[in-house]
Write a structure and sequence with these properties.
heterotrimer, A mainly alpha (153), B mainly alpha (507), C alpha/beta (323), A: mainly alpha, 73% helix, flat, B: 507 residues, mainly alpha, two-stranded antiparallel ribbon, 1% strand
Chain lengths: 153, 507, 323
């Protein structure tokens, strides 16, 4: 088997290996019963990560799916996407879940999706109504109302 | 045999067709369908919410309502698995392997049709097996001890990693990651806190539902937004019509051997408390792959319809199986059964060996309702399939915010805890990163569900066996399972070696 | 002078007992475990009768107030206990407790974030004594047989914090018999089935549960730690027979309490409400049918007494569950 550093997956494998080492270290300090899974899982994880890191699984997995996955969108798009998804959570935390859902859907559709104003506004409004009806009336579950009403952490 | 008294069985079915019973059945089915489809909610949540309503109802009606909810959840969970690569319930994870690729090819209607019909038929077959098992339920429960649970958990983890074919090492890494995540929290037996770092929220560990929603639904949304377009990357929206759905419906019947095998595995494995659901679906999938013709094996994971039929039939059949330990011993065969048990007790029924003699009429109503709800769910899903499937053509800018809203709200509503939403977001990123680097995520939910079981069973086995694992070799049941594990691995390795040899020479 | 009188009058009005308007809004009963267990079932069963009582008491002023059971599982019951201790003691939040389970930190002298003795103890609702069970077809026919086994007894159990586990440890320690505990079973059903299956030799169950689980006669009850052995347990010995009558104090209590600082009148109202619910013919019938014992006292003071006596009994054995 050829040993060649796996360049493609380096960005993920290094943190994973570090994670395995970390959990191994912390886990081995626990009592014998509690340490069982953390210890063995992290050891195996370390072994398998090194295995992939050194390109030893390439004999079977030629990484074609990885190339395909990466090709679907470049890093710039990915970062923007991650950021925008986070924005929803921040919005939900500040103004409450349902208002955030309505506003977020509207912004996504109108500003990023280029949909017509009526379409975007209409869909957002309907979504809001459905969410409200489903949770507040049918399920009688109170949803998070935002930091001003619920208070900080 | 008294339990199979035809008069009682007949009465149960007649009762089911009374107007108010039908209404309760429809209501339960509808609620189960909606909850199963929305990412984050699910059968167990629906059942728990129904408890207060059911209290004032007559026992038979309450059972019918509950059976309606339970019969449906695995079916609707398949819909999101296929459309959004997001399992509605953990056992539906196996369906994403071939269901989602089909959706990406513009054949979502075909996949949903097959899933719905496999679920409906599988559920009925499961009930039939259940009825056959009724006389020996006690013996079955007494036959399986922690020793077997340990081995079954191992079997589950092994089969799931192997089911990803060439990527099984990467799959294993994700699974091991899942095991570690599952160990976060207070250890019930030793009282030690693992990986909590003094954070109160982590005291009980990560909750399964927010983690799953993040790992699957949110990561998919990040991916979808980044790559633009819609889920269906190829194919045409017009191709999704009722004809496509109908073609899908007929597939399980055409491939009846797969259906039967899947249902048998589902019922059998479902009868084992705790292990049941998730393992059953994956085992069915892996066995379907293993028993397929060598030429067909490569197509799994790329949209082979058998990869949808096998797990979905197992999924619904397992509900029949899960009733075995629940009714015979009051030991719930699954999380849904645990909630269902409480309803039984609230209405004064005592699960146990005597339930067969004391409440036989109620039991048959339950069985009838469960079977019926599975069928109704299938019919509703099939009718709505072509409309639902068109969602795969909705643009990301519209779909993502809507799914995200439901996902986050679903996560929050579990315990009214905003931290759960943060957890969901965090695991969304983690899941996405795995996805991006081509690491199969499928082992993750299984590891989270089976990890604690494996750990507990391991120590129980040690104690029962007086400090050694030799007991594994003393019990015929254990030996059978160990042979299964070895068999699965061997079969796969054989497949590997032959196909990779082929690859090398052609390179 | 008039101003002062007005002030005093205002003060008197402002401090008028809140009780007069109780309940003002929905009442929350916290359940420290998930749905489906004994505590959950009992609470949900009692809730409608509590509503009935409060409705009758308020008469025409009643605003259709609901008594809402709220599951709050987590950290083996600690999460709920901490939550309840932080609520306002206005009678609108109460919790069902597992005694001595919730008292384990107190017994061991550890801090768990809540003070079990500080709550406003309202009433008991259920609870039970303990029995020792083995498999009927197994090698042990009497309690003495168990003591005669060479080596430690293998005992399937749920976990170290459970009351049945404490009962096991105390029992065997009393007879200087060693026990090897197999933890990890999910429920009392599960670990008692384990005994049937042969995973272990013996375990203990609440008497009511034993009756329920033994309808098919698979088990043999060899001991019942109660002054009067229940007639359903033929052949069982009790504490007197084995020279340790103090074992009769071993028991599980299901009790309801509110946060510390509740008004005594309010506590009395709650005590009566709970007694009403528990003694209601419907509940009594359900209890008899399903084998879930229910019991209430006639004052909060008596409740607190029983609690402290129970905790005191277990505290003697704190060394036994030191691990």
């Amino acid at each position: 088997m050829k040993i060649r550093l796996d360049q493609d997956n380096l960005l993920l494998l290094l943190p994973l290996t570090a994670f395995a080492v970390g959990t191994l270290y912390i886990g081995s300090n626990y009592g014998p019963v509690s340490a069982f899974i953390p210890f063995w899982a992290s050891i195996f994880m370390l072994i398998t990560c090194l295995f992939v890191l050194l390109g030893m699984d390439k004999a079977v997995d030629d990484g074609e799916d990885h190339v395909a996955a990466k090709g679907e969108s470049d890093n710039h798009n990915v970062l923007a996407s991650g950021l925008w998804i986070t924005v929803y959570v921040v919005m939900a935390y500040v103004v409450g879940m349902i208002p955030a859902a309505v506003a977020y859907t509207f912004f996504s559709m109108y500003f990023f999706g280029g949909k017509k104003l009526l379409m975007a506004a209409g869909t957002s409004a309907v979504l809001g109504l459905i969410l409200f009806g489903l949770f507040e009336f049918i399920l009688e579950k109170e949803l998070y109302k935002g930091v001003f009403i619920e208070g900080y952490f | 045999m008294e339990a199979l008294d035809l008069a009682v069985i007949g009465d149960a079915w007649l009762r089911l067709f009374e107007l108010d019973s039908l209404l309760y059945l429809m209501l339960g089915t509808l609620i189960g369908l909606i909850f199963g489809v929305l990412p984050g909610l699910g059968g167990t949540t629906a059942l728990a919410l129904m408890i207060p309503f059911s209290m004032n109802m007559d026992a038979g009606d309450a059972i019918i309502l509950m059976a309606g909810v339970m019969g449906v959840a695995p079916t609707s969970g398949a819909v999101t698995a296929i459309l959004l690569n997001t399992p509605g319930t953990a056992p539906n994870a196996a369906t994403t392997l071939d269901g989602y690729p089909l959706a990406q090819q513009g054949r979502a209607g075909f996949a949903i049709g097959a899933a719905a019909s496999a679920s409906g038929l599988g559920g009925i077959i499961g009930i039939i097996f259940l009825i056959a098992m009724v006389p020996i339920t006690r013996e079955i429960v007494l036959m399986f001890a922690p020793t077997e649970f340990l081995l079954l958990a191992v079997l589950g983890l092994v089969t799931v990693s192997l089911s990803t074919g060439k990527k099984f090492v990467k799959s294993l890494i994700v699974g091991l990651f899942g095991l570690i995540i599952a160990s976060v929290g207070y250890h019930e037996v030793t009282g030690e806190e693992r990986f909590t770092f003094g954070i109160d929220y982590l005291w009980d560990g990560f909750k399964l539902v927010p983690v799953m929603i993040g790992f699957f639904a949110v990561s998919e949304m990040i991916n979808l937004w980044a790559k633009r377009g819609s889920v269906a990357a190829s194919g045409e929206m017009e191709a999704i019509n009722f004809r496509q759905v109908l073609q899908g419906c007929l597939e399980p019947i055409k491939r009846w051997k797969v259906l039967l095998r899947g249902s048998a595995i589902g019922t059998g494995v479902g009868a084992l408390p705790g292990v049941g659901g998730t393992v059953a679906a994956f085992m069915a999938y892996t066995i379907a792959v293993t028993t397929a013709k060598p030429s067909e094996r490569d197509s799994f994971g790329k949209g082979n319809i058998v990869g949808v039929i096998a797990p979905e039939s197992a999924n619904n059949a397992k509900e029949g199986g899960a009733l075995v330990p629940t009714l015979a011993f009051g030991i719930p065969g699954s999380a849904e059964m645990a909630v269902f048990l409480s309803v039984l007790v609230l209405h004064g029924m005592v699960p146990g060996p005597t339930i067969m003699t004391e409440s036989l009429d109620i039991i048959w109503i339950l069985i009838a309702a469960a079977a019926a709800s599975g069928v109704i769910a299938s019919i509703i899903t099939i009718s709505a399939a072509s409309s639902i499937a068109k969602l795969t053509f909705v643009d990301s800018r519209t779909l993502v915010p809507i799914v995200l809203a439901f996902a986050m709200i679903g996560s929050y509503s579990l315990d009214n805890e905003i931290y759960d939403v943060f957890t969901t977001l965090a695991f969304g990123f983690v899941g996405f990163i795995f996805m991006r680097f081509g690491f199969p995520r499928i082992a993750f939910p299984l590891a989270i569900v089976l990890g604690p079981l494996m750990e507990t069973s391991y120590f129980q086995t040690l104690r029962i066996g007086d400090g050694t694992l030799s007991i594994l070799f003393d019990r015929p049941q254990s030996i059978v399972i160990m042979l299964l594990i070895v068999g699965c691995v061997a079969y796969y390795l054989k497949g590997f070696l032959t196909s990779s040899e082929g690859k090398e020479t052609s390179a | 002078m008039r101003f002062l009188t007005a002030l005093v009058a205002l003060g008197l009005i402002a401090s008028a007992p809140v009780q007069a308007a109780f309940p003002e809004k929905d009442i929350e009963i916290v359940i420290p475990y998930g749905p489906g267990g004994g505590f959950d079932t009992l609470t949900r069963k009692l809730a409608p009768y509590l509503e009935e009582y409060f409705a009758k008491k308020a008469g025409k002023n009643f605003n259709n107030i609901k008594v809402v059971p709220k599951n709050m599982p987590g950290a083996s019951g600690k999460k709920a206990a901490v939550y309840t201790s932080k609520q306002k003691p206005d009678g609108h939040t109460v919790q069902i407790f597992n005694i001595p389970g919730h008292g384990l930190p107190y017994i061991q002298g550890k801090d768990a974030g809540y003070d079990i003795t500080g709550y406003s103890w309202l009433n008991r609702v259920g609870g039970d004594g303990y029995v020792v069970i083995v498999a009927k077809d197994g090698p042990y026919k009497t309690f003495q047989d168990l003591l005669d086994k060479s080596g430690d007894l293998k005992i399937p159990e749920q976990g170290p914090g459970s009351t049945s586990n404490m009962a096991n440890k105390i029992t065997w320690a009393t007879f200087n018999k060693g026990g090897e505990y197999i933890y990890g079973y999910k429920s009392s059903r599960d670990y008692s089935t384990a005994v049937l299956r042969g995973d272990g030799d013996v375990t203990m169950l609440a008497a009511g549960s034993a009756k329920r689980y033994n309808k098919a006669g698979d088990f043999r009850i060899v001991a019942h730690w109660a002054d009067q052995v229940d007639p359903a347990f033929e052949g069982a010995v009790n504490g007197n027979d084995v020279g340790h009558p103090e074992l009769h104090d071993l028991g599980l209590l299901r009790m309801i309490a509110g946060p510390a600082g509740m008004d005594p009148e309010l506590m009395k109202t709650w005590n009566e409400a709970l007694a009403y619910a528990v003694n209601h013919p419907d509940i009594q019938a359900w209890s008899a049918k399903t084998g879930n014992p229910v019991l209430a006292y006639d004052s909060p003071e008596k409740t607190k007494d029983v609690l402290m006596k129970n905790l005191g009994y277990f505290k003697q054995f704190s060394k036994v569950f030191a691990n």
